[in-house]
Amino acid sequence: MATASNFLQKFRDKDTRAFKNFTASQFLEVWSHYDLDGSGYIEDRELDSFLREFVSSIVPGRIGEEVVSDSALQDLKEEFMRAYDENEDNKIEIGELAQMLPTEENFLLLFRRSNPLSSSVEFIRVWRQFDRDSSGHIDADELGDFLRHILGEKRKVGEERMKEYRDTILRLFDRNGDGQLQLSELARLLPVKDNFLAKPLLKNASRLSGPEIDRLFRKYDTDRSGQIEGDELAGLLKDLLELTGEDYDESKMLYFRDVIMEQWDSDKDGRIARDELKMILLQHKRLAEEQEALQSGCD
User: Where in this chain does the record put each EF-hand domain (predicted)?
Assistant: First the structure.
């Protein structure tokens, strides 16, 4: 008989003790149970609780509760994170949990990371493709088209099942509850392979060499025009905004663009040249250092 204290036991087969396949709705139920603070991650004590119940749910009753001792939990966590924590941030994201649980195949495909977008520039182009009305949000109908695109033509999903997928995705990623996805929310569903402005780079921005600046500039100057503009500029802004760890929508990105261009677009041509990019990185580094100092002072 399953104990009320172990949430995961009800999803295991009573005879084999293996997990039964999770539907999209059941996956949402599990995620909501363990992401107690609604942060979009299972981490710290939430992660400890999930791992303890993940293992102890194999054995029914009180015996299962004793399988994972406090001393064994740390070893267990290290093994799990090596296997599933793809970005090595010591947290479990929604897509990573989808790889852990035997989830319905078509729904699982929405989280496949075998072929991630190469950059935020590519992400912005996908965003433009599915934000058909240029509202700055992906509404429910646009999201349905986006999910069909991910699944591909060979994966036929009925309207009722697609509605379940769409509603579940909104429940999982729509953090402000407005019934649509803003930029930062879609970015969590559709992550890119690399943020070219990773923090280790910014911490050494003042010591970036000429070749390093050139290499970074080419990451965004995808058409090799010698300028970062249009979707390239939006991709650069997205990477900068993500370093703050805060949610953002298109209006915030546009405001950020205006601030950046007013201060650093020295020739006022609406584009970013190589030397202007270096000055932006130096300024962002200074602001990050000031924020860290302020937070340390508050602590």
Answer: 22-57, 72-107, 118-153, 161-196, 208-243, 260-287
**How far apart (Å, rounded) are the C-alpha atoms in residues 61 and 5?**
10
H or E segment at 282? helix 274-298
Q: Which of 104, 186, 94 is nearest to 139 (CA)?
A: 186
Residue 259, domain CATH: 1.10.238.10
Q: Strands, E, within the chain: which ranges?
A: none
Q: Cβ–Cβ contacts within 10 Å for residue 23, how many?
A: 15
Task: Write down the residue that tokens 């204290």 correspond to.
Answer: 5
In a domain, 173, yes or no: yes
Taking only the tens place, the pLDDT of each residue in 188-207 is 888 888 888 875 566 666 67
Structure token digits, residue 210: 């000429």
Which of 104, 137, 163 is at the close of a domain?
104
End-to-end CA distance of the chain: 47
pLDDT tens digits for 85-110?
887 888 999 988 988 899 888 888 88
